[in-house]
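User: I'll paste a sequence; please echo it back and then give the predicted structure.

Assistant: Echoing your sequence first, then the prediction.
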Amino acid sequence: MTLFGDPTIWLPIAFATLMGVSILIYVVLDGYDLGVGVLFPFATPDDKDRMIASIGPFWDANETWLVLAVGLLLVAFPWAHGVILTAFYMPVALMLLGLILRGVAFEFRAKAPASHKPWWNGAFFAGSLMTALCQGFMLGLYIMGLEWTWPNVAFAVLTAICLTTGYAFIGSAWLMIKTEGTLQQKAVAWARRGQWGVLAGIAAVSLASPLVSPRIFDKWFAVPEVFILAPLPIVSIALLGVIWMSLRHLPDAADRWTWIPFVATMFLFALAFAGLAYSFYPYVVPERLTIYEAASAPESLFVILIGALVVLPMIAGYTVLAYTTFRGKAADLRYD
């Protein structure tokens, strides 16, 4: 029986791919608007209004990808969903609290009296910071096998800080595209400082992943795999070089090249995600459950796949529509 003829093989792979793509799109898209919130303490009140305007039309569409990823995990890999969310009970609860806090603050700050606006700005920053830190903590603990030990928690704290810095960096890159003048110059300065956090985070995850499991170590450093995978770190280093060089020459007077750091960071995140996916395949719960063991029955997966293939184009279309309709520099965000 061929690989694509056996539904117990290709259906789990299809759902793992859909879930992985959804997570990657979420990390890039919601990552930048979380990063904009994390940068709030460094901005003036007028800057904060324009920063909110730069993400206002998009943040709902961005968070839809997280809902899709978690939904796919629940229906396609219910055993893994139970194990992962049990291990992440506290950080998930804090992340949801952060998402609620920043969502409420986003809406209320636009209508609040001037004297109350700083409080809502603080709530938006706090919600963004909580969400980013929790996601980074969960990433680190997942890499370490979901085990709550002091060394694992210490590594998770490191990844939480690095991912938050990475979100702030891509948020700065987004502001370079969507703003102009003084705020754009500030965004370039923020990105110049934040790029080193991105480098530290990628280095930490890349070094830790092969060390937590002999299986992953062999997948990375056995021959010929080590030569086949060599382009991943080489291209990643090249992208970091492109980001560094572009930031040295930004902002440019013609405003033609401000998109380079954002696009380069998107590819950098994609390469890092590809490395993680390769490292942990076929496990969905590290070293405990494979995607085949955790998957629902093939009959259920096939029905769910039909639904996913209907929903996915709608979410993608909604996202594309939002970004094409509100392209260009951010304007004032108004509700009246």
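Residues 12-325 form one domain. The CA atoms of residues 92 and 122 lie 21 Å apart.
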